[in-house]
Amino acid sequence: MKASTLRRGMNLWPPFLFAGIKVVTLSPDFRHAKVRLRLRRWNRNYVGTHFGGSLFAMTDPFWMLLVLNNLGREYLVWDRAAEVEFVTPGRGTVEAEFTLTNDHLAELRARTADGAKALVWFPVEVTTPTGEVVARVRKQVYARRKPRVAVVPDTSTTLDGEGAQTV
Questions:
Q1: Measured on CA atoms in the order 73, 75, 78, 81, is the torsion positive or negative?
Q2: Residue 68, SS3 per DSSP
Q3: Which distant-in-sequence residues (6+ apart) come within 8 Å of 153 by Cβ?
């Protein structure tokens, strides 16, 4: 799927749409994403700041999506764990940016080359437009090369000397 199509779909996905989360950027190579959350009446908590669940939700799928789309179909990629630290109350618009580097991908490929699993932590900060940190989130991504399926020749039929198939 093209990144632009996925970005539009995610913006219409009910958990993001109803929380007010907007995917601003998803690069065509799936190496960078930027997400924004504006404080609205329906996504405030009891004390009038950003609901913590929305702050976490805006960071939830991105590391897995970036890794999955860059490693390719030969890999299994899943979210495995997460940690969130709320640093200061979010009172306005907040953003999170994700950048998957060549070093990240090289580490994942090296750690999974022999078929082993890799569990890698990826950090991201939720910040105000001025750079004040509202929350720090870490996501642990699971990656493993898919096992190769051995192709076993079909021995139920043979060819006779004339090239005709016999059973």
A1: negative
A2: helix
A3: none
Mean residue pLDDT of the chain comes to 90
- Predicted structure pTM score: 0.84
Q: Which of 74, 55, 125 shows the shortest CA–CA distance to 97?
A: 125
| 74/123 Cα distance (integer angstroms) | 25
Contact 76, 144 (CB under 8 A): yes
Burial class of 137 by CB neighbour count within 10 A (0 to 12, 13 to 18, 19+) = buried
How many CB atoms neighbour CB 52 within 10 A? 13
Q: What is the three-class DSSP state of 103?
A: helix
Contact 106, 74 (CB under 8 A): no
Q: What are the residues facing 151 on neighbouring strands?
A: none
Q: What confidence tens digit (pLDDT) does each residue in 58-93 have?
A: 999 999 999 999 998 999 999 999 999 999 999 999
CA distances from 6 to 14, 165, 167 (A): 14, 48, 49
**E runs forming strands in the chain:** 21-26, 32-37, 75-86, 94-99, 118-127, 133-145, 158-159, 165-166
